[in-house]
Amino acid sequence: MIGFLIITVYRLPERVELLPLPRWQPVGENLTLRCQVAGGAPRRNLTVVLLRGEEELSRQPAIGEPAEVTVTVLAGRDDHRANFSCRTELDLRPGGPGLFQNSSAPRQLQTFALPVTTPHIIVPRFLEVGTTWSMNCTLDGLFPASEAQAHLALGNQTLNSTVESHGNTITATATATASMEQEGAQEIVCNMTLASVSREARENITIYSFQGPILNLSEPSAPEGTAVTVTCLAGPRVQVTLEGVPAPAPGQPVHFQLNATETEDRRIFFCSATLRVDGEILHRNSSVQLRVLYGPKIDQAKCPQRLTWQDRTIHVLQCQARGNPDPKLHCFQEGSQLEVPIGIPFLVRLNHNGTYSCKAASSRGTHTITVVMNVSDWNARVVSIVLGVLAVVGVVTICAALLYVYGVHRHSDIYHVNRGSTSLPLTSRQPEEAVGEDPS
């Protein structure tokens, strides 16, 4: 009897390797995975499996020496930082010793997405020399935004920037101070880089120098009667206008002179300046106040010189004094030196009756006026009024009595008539002849 014995000779693969992956793989593009297998027999029982994590992507026989198995997948955001590997399976079942597996070292994939749009720069159009300013640069639609890098520059000067990411947005912020050396047209550059792919934006700015306006008084605190010169000036290319009067030309000052009087005290002078920068006109203003030093003056229109008040009533002595420096005003009663408060309600008494000297004093001199205060006693006035009323009543009573007596007498008088002879003479009486005169 003749028997048969089948002997299978096998050999495990010597090398199973997943070829290197791209450092960054764009999202939405095809990714080809390649696995090389060297050795291993029998080949008809050797299979190569490509994996994403534990997910099986492809299963193919190992053909050739070395065998190379490929598979193409579409890279997505979910593939970012995913592990890819390949595994060989030498299956000697059912009659053999079993299933032998051998895996490659895993490789991690990084995927990214970068928009076709350029970053958005927020920066002032004009920057003044010496000013500190802030600029922002933002780009939306990145993945992963936390892996992106941002660089900001002013001309050839790289700025120290702070980069923050929120979701799919990255923002770079920088602060800088414009210098005199940078005066003129400059360019702001914002560069966003992810996976060696960049997006860049540029913005033009103008750095300018705007000096002034500087408004000066030859004497900010001038004694009354002093000549004061007001001057306004500014830097090159700046046109100044003082109190409506323009300078002869840009960069030149303008000034005028005045005589310091009381009416000029606290006067505010204004100077405006304009500068044309890149087709735009920039404005700036300045003001200064003149103080005129003059002696105290009591306003007699606001300080009555004669007052008539009643005892035990409340009144206010209204007196005001002007001057620079501000004077102190006091009113003292002549003789007793009793002081009456000014501008404050007080109770008027009989002892306030009299003449007062109201004096305003400062370092520039004094000014005094006289105020007479007549304070009448309430009781004396009542007595006078009562006596006056009684006198009037008495006069009226006497007049009424006289009229009454006269009226009664007129109606009750008796008149006597001389009766004499009741007959009338029939002859006329001749006038008597003159004594001692001869008849004719």
Task: Give keywords.
mainly beta, 4 domains, elongated, Immunoglobulin-like, 8% helix, single chain, 35 strands, 440 residues, five-stranded antiparallel sheet
Write the CATH homologous superfamily of the largest domain. Immunoglobulins
Specify the helix fraction band: under 10%
Q: Could you say which structural class the secondary elements and strand pairing correspond to?
A: mainly beta
Which residue ranges are poorly predicted, with pLDDT under 50 across at least 5 consecutive positions?
A: 412-440
In angstroms, what separates the terminal alpha carbons?
A: 250 Å
- Report mean pLDDT, rounded to a whole number: 86
The CATH level-2 architecture of the largest domain is identified as Sandwich
The major β-sheet equals:
6 strands, mixed
The CATH first-level class of the largest domain comes to Mainly Beta
List the helices and strands and how they pair.
Blueprint: E1 11-18, E2 25-26, E3 30-41, E4 46-52, E5 55-61, E6 67-74, E7 82-91, E8 99-103, E9 107-109, E10 111-112, E11 120-122, E12 126-128, E13 132-140, E14 149-154, E15 157-159, E16 161-166, E17 169-177, E18 184-194, E19 197-208, E20 214-217, E21 221-223, E22 227-233, E23 239-242, E24 245-246, E25 254-259, E26 267-277, E27 280-298, E28 306-310, E29 313-315, E30 321-324, E31 328-333, E32 339-340, E33 346-348, E34 354-362, E35 365-376, H1 378-412
Parallel strand pairs: 2-10, 12-19, 21-27, 28-35
Antiparallel strand pairs: 1-3, 3-6, 4-5, 4-7, 7-8, 7-9, 11-13, 13-17, 14-15, 14-18, 16-17, 18-19, 20-22, 22-25, 23-24, 23-26, 26-27, 27-30, 29-33, 31-32, 31-34, 34-35
